[in-house]
Design a protein that fits this description.
Elements lengths: L20 E6 L2 E6 L4 H7 L6 E2 L6 E2 L12 E4 L2 E4 L10 E3 L1 E2 L13 E13 L3 H12 L4 E4 L20 H4 L5 H13 L4 E4 L3 E5 L5 E5 L2 E12 L3 E3 L12 E3 H10 L7 E5 L3 H12 L3 E7 L8 H9 L4 E3 L1 E7 L6 E6 L12 E4 L2 E4 L3 E3 L2 H8 L4 E3 L9 H18 L11 H8 L18 E5 L9 H5 L5 E2 L10 E2 L8 H5 L5 E5 L8 E6 L11 E5 L5 E13 L2 E10 L2 H4 L4 E2 L23 E3 L4 E2 H9 L5 H8 L12 H10 L22 H4 L5
Length: 691
């Protein structure tokens, strides 16, 4: 299959990038990929999802994190086993599947210079929203700083976010898409003379002499900072269920990397596990890329993400199954189906409630764990250090920006910079932006049937104010908290449609009775591509929570002024449903119906907990029940945690199993952190002898 067949060539938000095709070989056969793209992404674009087979049980191996955190995508690249998701493709590369254990080969070491010793005032680990915000504050004060990131560009997870952000317009670019916020912040940093940016650089360790080892493209560097800021973000949590390691079962972040960064069409039919903002947004991104989302399961009675995120995918035709969990992903070499079931109050599956769908992808979006290993080491070694963003506390990117800004100002103050003022309301704003969503209010659409006016389909307190900020006549405000309070409309609307275009939750419509009292025009925001809209045709319209209201005629559409990637869809709508119309269906029920008979599900103990060494939940439980309380002892017996990921994916799962077995935390000893964060050839630490 050619790479073009599995690439996204038409997207409502993203531009098709200019790419240079290069030749390489995969398992000895000629192949064509994109210069500089991750090896794994080029293979996915060729339709190759199985990268090899594990030596322990011949299980198929593929992608999981796409972020260098696990080792499931390992391939032999020019004779060396490497994580293919973080290796840029180069012309002439010889890439091979990893079948069993790799043979020891005599390969040349890295052609890098001898290690460099570098002093700096502040070293920032992580170029995401919090790290960038901190660097900007330090740079404004002229403080020398180095910001380090392992990707090829600044932005962190912002570069994967095609949706508009919540929060405050003035303080954190609310109403702007994440990809554009990343560019704005990166542009500010590049103008700061005192801030040095190191990209494609992997932090290997924080050491007892107060130094930090960093593997850069040109060699190994040992940096000694006066102050260390940890802004390393978070890694996705895993979830053990039978089939969780099949190619096609992977993290939502990996999916966003493939789809939104590399424009690879990696899936056709998707099921999402997890109703937090990450899962809800990933489902929306799949719809934007033209994929079918057959459903989303959330174990809690309500989705943990913002209600507007859940509502907008429901309106498009995605069923959301609360109080449900995943039982298994089915398939031999890759995901072919998924089964879920309802859960009781103890989150135990209820027999007889199983439902199965044919899918090729299961997205796991069950939360995040902070990447805080470097902070713990820095504290242990007595270094001056702080944390910011998700490394400190999991929250939204807007909150991470505030966190980084505060930390940057605090560090500048401690370093003796003059004229440092931390506004008194900065901490308060940061706390507000961390809100997971507040009180829900009853839905009362207006009964008006004349004139033109916006309808605000937003019934949950969340930190968001773009609709209030954009109105040219200042007709949208709140009687509650200035940013958390529900928006309210009062006055005489001019029909400018700005509030429809700017809303991050797509929760504002405009109803216009001026031309017709029987068939008013309803303007609905639409971000899935105007090629799906045929003027003059009928389309099913839905209410704020996705209930079908009836049919409307597509009168036309236009691009929103100032928001070129938001389409304003014009619908001739029956008057009795006009004010309740909040969206349109793009997925028909017959396309997402479950199988008539659910599939047989393996036992839960069959779930793999340690991906690197293929250790099951049943194996772990047996040893815990035998009395083992030290995870290092468990590692020695089972090899769980011994793999190339360094225990990054399995440690939290093993701790969870201890809790499920009723073992108090104080009776358990966690894994000892490895001295190096990422596996590295020894040649990097020696370098080439210049003499």
């Amino acid at each position: 299959m050619s790479s073009q067949e599995k690439r996204i060539t038409r997207h409502p938000v993203l531009e098709e990038p200019r790419i240079r095709k290069i030749e390489f070989t995969f398992n000895g056969k000629p192949a064509v990929g994109v210069d500089g793209e991750a090896v794994s992404s080029s293979l996915f674009a060729m339709g190759i999802h199985v990268f090899g087979h594990h030596h322990a049980d011949e299980s198929a191996q593929g992608m999981f994190c796409a972020n260098g955190q696990c080792s499931q995508c390992t391939l032999l690249i020019d004779g060396v086993p490497r994580k293919s998701c973080i290796v840029p493709l180069e012309a002439g590369m010889q890439i091979e599947s990893l079948e069993g254990l790799p043979e020891l080969r005599d390969v040349p070491g890295p052609d890098v210079r001898q290690p460099l010793m570098i002093d700096t005032v502040v070293l920032i680990l992580g170029g995401g929203p919090s790290g960038m915000a901190a660097a900007i504050e330090l740079g404004k004060k002229g403080i020398d700083a180095i910001i380090v990131d392992d990707k090829d560009r600044l932005g962190g997870k912002l570069v994967l976010q095609t949706h508009k952000f919540f929060g405050s317009v003035v303080d954190c670019h609310a109403g702007t898409r994440g990809i554009h916020i990343a560019s704005l912040l990166a542009g500010e940093i590049l103008e700061l003379e005192s801030v040095d940016v190191w990209l494609d650089s992997i932090v290997l360790g924080v050491f007892s002499d107060g130094t930090v080892g960093i593997r850069c493209s040109g060699g190994y560097r040992i940096v000694k900072p006066e102050y260390l800021l940890i802004a390393t973000g978070a890694r996705e949590k895993s979830l053990p269920f039978p089939g969780c390691t099949l190619p096609g079962a992977y993290g939502a972040g990996a999916f966003q990397t493939l789809v939104n960064r590399d424009l690879v069409r990696c899936s056709e039919r998707i099921f999402v596990v997890g109703g937090g903002n990450v899962g809800l947004i990933a489902a929306y991104h799949a719809l934007q890329a033209g994929m079918t989302v057959v459903g989303l399961a959330e174990a809690l009675p309500l989705c943990g993400g913002y209600k507007v995120h859940a509502d907008k995918i429901k309106r498009l035709g995605v069923p959301v199954f609360t109080r449900h969990t995943v039982l298994a992903a089915h398939g031999h070499e890759k995901v072919e189906a998924v089964t879920i079931a309802e859960v009781d109050d103890s989150f135990k599956p209820l027999s007889g409630t199983e439902k199965s769908w044919e899918v090729d992808t299961v997205l796991v979006a069950v939360g995040l764990n902070p990447v805080d290993e470097f902070y713990r080491k820095a504290l242990k070694f007595g270094m001056k250090t702080m944390m910011a963003g998700d490394a400190e506390e999991i929250a939204e990117a807007s909150a991470a920006m505030f966190s980084g800004k505060i930390r940057g100002l605090q560090i500048a103050s401690e370093l003796g910079a003059e004229d440092i003022s931390i506004p008194s309301d900065l901490h308060e704003k940061a706390e507000v932006l961390k809100s997971p969503g507040g009180k829900l209010f009853p839905y009362h659409p207006p009964e008006v049937r004349e004139g033109v006016f916006p309808v605000l389909h937003c019934m949950q307190e969340i930190p968001c104010n773009p609709c209030m900020t954009c109105c040219p006549k200042d007709l949208i405000g709140t009687s509650g908290h200035p940013i958390m309070g529900l928006p309210e409309f009062h006055g005489e609307c001019v029909g400018c449609e700005k509030c429809v275009a700017v809303c991050p939750g797509l929760a504002v419509t405009l109803v216009d009775f001026r031309e017709s009292s029987e068939k008013p025009m309803v303007t609905v925001p639409f971000e899935l591509g105007e090629w799906l809209l045929e003027p003059g045709s009928e389309i099913t319209v839905t209410g704020w929570e996705g209930s079908v209201l009836g049919r409307a005629v597509i009168a036309g559409w236009k691009k929103a002024a100032g928001f070129p990637h938001t389409t304003l869809l014009k619908l001739e709508t029956p008057a009795d449903i006009a004010c309740r119309t909040a969206g349109v269906v793009i997925q028909e029920p017959e396309d997402i119906a479950p199988l008539q008979k659910p599939l047989e599900v393996p036992l839960p103990d069959d779930a793999i907990v340690c991906r690197c060494e293929r250790i099951s939940a049943g194996d772990i439980r047996r040893h815990i029940r035998s009395g083992i309380r030290d995870m290092n002892h468990l590692k020695a017996i089972t090899r769980a945690g011994f793999g190339a990921c360094g225990g990054k994916t399995c440690a939290a799962l093993i701790e969870r199993i201890y809790r499920e077995e009723g073992i108090p935390g104080e009776e358990m000893t966690a894994f000892t952190d490895r001295p190096l964060f990422a596996e590295t050839e020894l040649g990097w630490f020696k370098g080439v002898n210049d003499e």
